Amino acid sequence: MTSSTPTTHILISGAGIAGLALALQLVRGGIRTTIVEQAAGPRPGGQAVDLRGASRDVAARMGLTEAIEPYRVHEKGLSYVDGRGRVFGRMSMEAFDGKGAVAEVEIARGDLAAVLRRELVAAADGLLDLRYGDRIIAVSQDESGVDVRFEHADAARFDVVVGADGVHSSTRRLVFGGEEQFRTYLGGYAAFFTMPTPDDIEEGWFSMRFTPGTTFGIRPDLDPATAKAMLTLRIDRDPALRGDLAAQKELIRRALHGAGWHADTILAAMDAADDFYFDELVRIDVPNPVSGRVVLIGDAGSSGSPMSGMGTATALIGAWLLAERIAAGRGDLDGALARFAEDVAPFAENGKTLMGGGIERMVPETRLQAALLRASMGVMLSRPMRPLVRRMFATAQADLPLPE
Ligand SMILES: Cc1cc2nc3c(=O)[nH]c(=O)nc-3n(C[C@H](O)[C@H](O)[C@H](O)COP(=O)(O)OP(=O)(O)OC[C@H]3O[C@@H](n4cnc5c(N)ncnc54)[C@H](O)[C@@H]3O)c2cc1C
């Protein structure tokens, strides 16, 4: 990649997967890059995320394959368990050619972020300003750039501002409008955190249990001593939950009360976890991720929620496409952003597909539905039904080619 102009200066809001990946490609292309991340330091946590198809190609084109390799979680597949931990259905990685719920390349979100950060710092070459504990508070733009005010740092002008600040993007709010215009509530909340691996858990398997109102699971980690707890709660949206850690944990306590299997182990681990993540499940649709010299990538511009299993893959693809377009534009930043908006659209749309169906399919509402779901899963995952399920997953995630 060659630089557009040596003086181009780009600001990225958010040092998640999208922000770090974009910054890496920009500094590699010789572009001055500033990132502001509101968290005080790198944010750990998150489950294994999938890299399939185009996102795996992007990781390879970014030269990350080798760096990712030691962090790959080799999951054997997904198994469904009952209240006593007995398995009643399995989706093995091999039987579904890495195209089922468990992908061929899985890496914990926190590990992928750490890999990107390391590569970024190594490539920085004096072009990077990575600031934690700060955020944009005001933006005003004209035809040639964007004036930005920060909470802490001095105001500055940039050629382009990129909102990579996630589902609740404040860049989007400041420039494109309120979140409610772009958000569709998908009927529940998700939580993830690290826990000690229970002794009786089947090594390498992502085990999951359905109960009325809550689906919860335990997923292998890179370190066999730890695992990731995941919960999906089917409840009405409650804006008061946002930022209220005590209320979030109380909700989970109530949801897992008497839920059998490892519900109590998960609850015991929840309070000790230093990477507790909780958020509502929403889809984000921004019709055009570009407004003048401000552009949205990753979840800020488009998201199908963690239920899509595609958030990280789509973020990586978007970041790479934007960096490629800026490099190829050779100083024509407006043209580059317009090309990016066209190129990213099919990937953004594809990334919103909910592979296993929506929350109605993933989290039963009543005891009867839970029993029916368990029975249907048993049948769906039986050997004769595998080709059908494989086809379902293949259609859900189209293997889109990367644009030239
Ligand atoms: C801690 C954590 C754990 C996650 N775990 C999972 C998981 O287990 N499974 C799953 O499917 N998805 C998970 N996600 C979401 C997943 O990372 C994204 O869907 C995907 O990687 C796209 O990434 P993104 O960079 O667009 O957004 P994100 O990963 O959400 O990153 C956005 C970044 O922007 C920062 N930020 C937010 N607001 C501001 C602001 N105003 N100014 C500056 N910075 C800001 C955030 O702190 C964050 O670091 C998690 C996200 C986080 C932050």
From TrEMBL:
<dbReference type="InterPro" id="IPR036188">
    <property type="entry name" value="FAD/NAD-bd_sf"/>
</dbReference>
<keyword id="KW-0560">Oxidoreductase</keyword>
<feature type="domain" description="FAD-binding">
    <location>
        <begin position="8"/>
        <end position="328"/>
    </location>
</feature>
<dbReference type="InterPro" id="IPR002938">
    <property type="entry name" value="FAD-bd"/>
</dbReference>
<protein>
    <submittedName>
        <fullName>FAD-dependent urate hydroxylase</fullName>
        <ecNumber>1.14.13.113</ecNumber>
    </submittedName>
</protein>
<dbReference type="InterPro" id="IPR051704">
    <property type="entry name" value="FAD_aromatic-hydroxylase"/>
</dbReference>
<dbReference type="GO" id="GO:0071949">
    <property type="term" value="F:FAD binding"/>
</dbReference>
<dbReference type="GO" id="GO:0102099">
    <property type="term" value="F:FAD-dependent urate hydroxylase activity"/>
</dbReference>
<dbReference type="Pfam" id="PF01494">
    <property type="entry name" value="FAD_binding_3"/>
</dbReference>
